[in-house]
Amino acid sequence: MDSLEATSADSSVTSGYESCGIASDHSWDFLMKEYEPVLQECLLGSRCLVKIKSLMRKLQKLQEKAVAEDDYEKADKFRRRLEELHKEKSWLNFQLPSQHPSISSFLDKIRVYIQMILYEGVHKERKRLLEKSHQEILSLPYHEKIQVPVTKWDQLLEEKKWIQKEIEVLRAKLVVLEAKDQQLKIEIQEQDCHIHEQDYELSTLLNWVSLKELQTIGKALADILVASHKIPYSLDFPEPVKRRKYMASIAHQRWKSGVK
């Protein structure tokens, strides 16, 4: 009988873990389906832009070499190709995935969720310790209880006041967030169901992430934000290359004047 009960309990635990895994996988698949096209678009655009830039630099060097060898016909050919690439480059926008509006909004949402979960974890621990301290004092015999220093009671009262203030702040923030939520529902009513589904999948996924992993994710998001502001957006030619390009253009104009 005991072995049957143990087997049943093990089966229940196993099925619980399996259901958690399925829920987590489903949430992850949903989020990947939602944002992978945007990530691929940013990645493809950046790759194309870098490829065009690299080709333009090579053509620039070949053009300079042709001018140095007085082969202005070849230099003119390289110039026309450079102009074509310049037009192609103007159609592409270098954009980091983290700076894309939808991705940026998603990352901000993750940061908010992580902060809320970590904040709740800290306050739950503080509340647990406070309740434990209260219980320890209440469980003391009367003759020991009256010997508890007044400062201890003062400390507990201050702690309670602080927690009450924190609760009031959170309630005020909640009111503001609810008002913003109502405003957003009016402005993007046609996307409301989609947004709620997205929030549900994200919260479901993060519910199975440990606090330590959440802290790691939070740090990674902060690092991404810092790094994104350090990467140059223009990917333009350096000044020495610009000067050489300018000199080659002047030489080409002189050659055309001489031909005429």
TrEMBL record:
The organism of origin for this protein: Crotalus adamanteus (Eastern diamondback rattlesnake)
PANTHER family: DISRUPTED IN SCHIZOPHRENIA 1 PROTEIN (PTHR14332:SF3)
Domain UVR residues, every copy: 53-88
The protein's name: Disrupted in schizophrenia 1 protein
Cellular component GO terms, alphabetical: intermediate filament cytoskeleton; microtubule; microtubule organizing center
A Pfam match: UVR
Superkingdom of the source species: Eukaryota
Annotated keywords: Coiled coil
Residue stretches in coiled coil: 160-187
GO biological process: cilium assembly; neuron migration
